[in-house]
Amino acid sequence: MAEAADQKSPATPRKGGRRRERKEVRVGIAHVQATFNNTIVTLTDKMGNVVSWASAGSAGFKGSRKSTPFAAQTAAENAARKAMEVGLKQVEVYVRGPGSGREAAIRSLQAVGLEITAIRDVTPIPHNGCRPPKRRRV
């Protein structure tokens, strides 16, 4: 009987659960990865720590609709709104990949209210490395 009294009851609330404090981020980098199948927009601070992200798939698009410019626009808007809640104001945009959502994502970042300071294409280009896959049929 004495042993049962020593144990804590399961209904007691846990203490010591530390809340993670969010830092105010003013300037950051927007990484837009536009593939043939999806578009992923990631907003980071200058150090590369992710502030927010969204993709065409997370915006609710499935299948071939994920690869459309409208899906990329929606994903960029979602990511930008989340980042603006933390205080993001200015971004440099790094665009990677050959997808159709490249321009749409950049335009929607600007339309939401982020100030774009630079746009840079960081698509990896092989200097005669591996043999590329077959050409895409359209």
Describe what is shown at a glance.
By secondary structure, this protein is of the alpha/beta class. The chain is 25% helix and 25% strand.
Please provide a written account of the structure:
A 5-stranded mixed sheet has the order 3-2-1-4-5, covered by helices on one side. The mean pLDDT is 88. Helix 2 (69-86) packs parallel to helix 3 (102-112). It contains 3 helices and 5 strands, in the order αβββαβαβ. The radius of gyration is 21 Å and the shape is globular. By secondary structure, it is of the alpha/beta class.
Along the chain, the helix and strand elements come as: HEEEHEHE
- Assign a percent range to the helix content: 10-25%
Q: Could you report the average pLDDT, rounded to the nearest whole number?
A: 88
Give me the count of strands: 5
Spell out the blueprint of helices and strands.
Blueprint: H1 2-6, E1 27-34, E2 39-45, E3 50-55, H2 69-86, E4 90-96, H3 102-112, E5 115-121
Helix pairs in contact: 2-3
Task: Provide the descriptors you would attach to this structure in a database record.
138 residues; alpha/beta; five-stranded mixed sheet; 3 helices; 5 strands; 25% strand; globular
